[in-house]
Amino acid sequence: MRNADSVAACRISLFGGFRIEEEAGGSVWLTGKRGPAILAYLARCPGMTSPRERLADLLWGDSDGEHSRNSLRQTLSVLRRDLSRAGADIIHSRKDLIGLRADAVRVDVEDFEAGLSARSASELETALALYTGPFLDGFYVGSNAFDDWAASERERLLSRALGSMEKLARLVDAEGGLAVADRILAMEPTREESYRLKMELLVACGQRDKALRTFESCRSVLKKEFGVDVSSETRALWQSLLSAAEFPSTLQSANGVPAGQRQGRPSISVADIVNLTGERGDDFFAKGLVHDITTALSEVADYVVLSALAPVEKNGEDPRSMGGLRARYTLNGSIQRSGDQLRVNIQLVDARWRSQCLGPEIRRLSGERA
Predict the structure, then answer these.
(1) Across the strands, what pairs with 260?
(2) Alpha carbon of residue 100 to chain centroid
(3) How many other C-beta atoms lie within 10 A of the C-beta of residue 94?
(4) Would you tell me how many other CB atoms lie within 10 Å of the CB of residue 147?
(5) CA distance 360 to 60
(6) Which listed CATH number (3.40.50.150, 3.40.190.10, 3.30.1330.10, 3.40.50.10610) goes with 241-366?
(7) Rounded to an integer, what distance in angstroms lies between the CA atom of residue 15 and that of residue 292?
(8) pLDDT single digits (tens) 240-296
(9) Terminal C-alpha separation, the chain
(10) Number of other CB atoms surrounding residue 206 within 10 Å
């Protein structure tokens, strides 16, 4: 493994195609495609080393053993010559192994994957900036074994990039998160979980109508591309948004009886979870917790669930009132971080008697920050 302070003689870039540059920044010209393919494959091997037989099979698998080994020797000879002209002595060999000098090479994919473990938004943004395009985009050798390997890596790295972008969207503020969510969907228009993320962020920005339109876009794309409907999780989120939008105008009776009671079912309003720590990264955990609770309750037919209501005031204000809407029960709570632990306090209040039915219930969650 290269020391973090070492200076690489060459930089190999595998995102967005194949490029190799000298330390000073000039591009290194290589003959043909199989030489660059050898460098790309070695750059992704453990220890940047591979058996000769593996390289021969990877690039000349349709030839017999002797012919493939001769082709590998000739290609390595040309590759060494090209690198030597640029002053880049980065290939080493011993017995049946071929490798790159790890202390003399810096690879964008390696830096990218190492950076994805970052906890701060700025560090994660730095790592994601390295993803300038699909792995070896447009680089095809004509060998099924190599091209299949590259396609597998391309899909794996895209998945890691998209997942880390979703993580970043939850670490930054809601408006910044929306920009990230839009970038994700531009890269992968059929990624359903990213539509849900965008819906949540739009709600956090007070754009509920756009969140509902985002659901329709998701449903249309999935129907067109795969002939399927959205998942139950996406539908539950959509239904919770509809409930919050429709209840104020349609479910309050003239005599002030709670809407859920008029329908013969108790109603529960899920209020905001208050972030007592004040750290921005925990704001999205709190919003996600509200969403998860709302989704779980919405799947129970015994309740009418209202979400996105204002939190219950600590000064004793009536938790039933929100734009003329009354709910039988209000669920609210708070989160507070202490070191690597997170305290979650949930309360269920009976709005008729202002009595506490459940809570305070505190759970301790340990591990990395959400």
Answers:
(1) none
(2) 32
(3) 8
(4) 16
(5) 67
(6) 3.40.50.10610
(7) 36
(8) 888 765 544 443 322 333 443 334 466 788 887 877 776 766 777 788 788 778 777
(9) 29
(10) 11
pTM over 0.85: no
How far apart CA 343 and CA 337 sit, in angstroms, is 6
Tokens 């849900």 belong to residue = 196
Q: Which residues contact 276 (CB under 8 A, 6 or more apart)?
A: 334, 335, 336
Residue 261 has which token pair? Answer: 């009671």
Write the DSSP string, 205-271: TT-HHHHHHHHHHHHHHHHHHHS-PPPHHHHHHHHHHHHHHHHHHHS--TT---HHHHTTS-EEEEE
Q: CA-to-CA distance for 215 and 218, rounded, in angstroms?
A: 5
CA distance 125 to 36: 29
DSSP character for 104? G
Tokens of 78: 């040309």
Q: Which of 242, 220, 165, 224 is nearest to 198 (CA)?
A: 165
- pLDDT of 183-209, one tens digit each? 999 999 999 999 999 999 998 888 989
Please state the φ and ψ torsions of residue 57, each to the nearest 5 degrees: -65, -35
Q: Where are the alpha helices (DSSP H) in 118-231?
A: 121-128, 144-171, 174-187, 192-204, 208-226
Question: Minimal CA–CA distance to 216: which of 232, 234, 201, 193?
Answer: 234
What is the model's pLDDT at position 89?
87
Q: Are 290 and 307 in contact (CB under 8 A)?
A: yes
Residue 47 DSSP label: G
Residue 102 in 3-state DSSP? Answer: helix
> According to CATH, where is 3.40.50.10610 located in the chain?
241-366
Q: What count of other Cβ atoms lies within 10 Å of the Cβ of residue 363? A: 10
